[in-house]
Backbone:
């Protein structure tokens, strides 16, 4: 089994309800066990700033799938929730975005997958929830806690649990 960290995001529709449905689907489709789930966070948009705020979270799973099979399964989950990667604009609105942040200690660079995620240490909206569930996990020689020290976290708001 491999330990994978996955970032979830979205800003179209009821994103928190989407997460609640998508996480069990991710575990089922990836033959995974959920190890940890962060809180949900409201975050400012990144890249294309002229859009609604996002909701972001991270999960940690144990999976028997290899990284490419995991990515394929995650893309299938996104599609089930209405995402169309072929027609959307880069960094634009989306109902669900799933990114593999890290997969064990794998370092991989292929046309469709780079591990660990190449922009992880630039993105407070990923590092804040990641630091909640894996604060001291070393990813490419840094921990989420260490990486957050150099980033602006203004505008990132932890949301209360859903009841």
Residues:
């Amino acid at each position: 089994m491999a330990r994978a960290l996955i970032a979830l995001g979205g800003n179209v529709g009821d994103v928190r309800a989407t997460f609640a449905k998508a996480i069990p689907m991710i575990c089922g489709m990836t033959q995974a066990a959920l190890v940890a789930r962060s809180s949900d966070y409201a975050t400012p948009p990144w890249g294309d700033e002229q859009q609604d705020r996002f909701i972001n979270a991270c999960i940690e799973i144990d999976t028997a799938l290899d990284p490419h099979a995991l990515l394929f399964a995650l893309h299938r989950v996104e599609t089930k929730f209405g995402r169309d990667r072929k027609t959307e604009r880069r960094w634009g609105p989306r109902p669900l975005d799933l990114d593999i942040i890290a997969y064990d200690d794998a370092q991989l660079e292929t046309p469709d997958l780079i591990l660990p995620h190449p922009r992880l240490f630039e993105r407070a909206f990923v590092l804040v929830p990641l630091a909640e569930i894996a604060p001291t996990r070393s990813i490419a020689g840094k921990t989420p806690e260490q990486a957050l020290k150099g980033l602006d976290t203004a505008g990132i708001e932890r949301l209360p649990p859903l009841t």
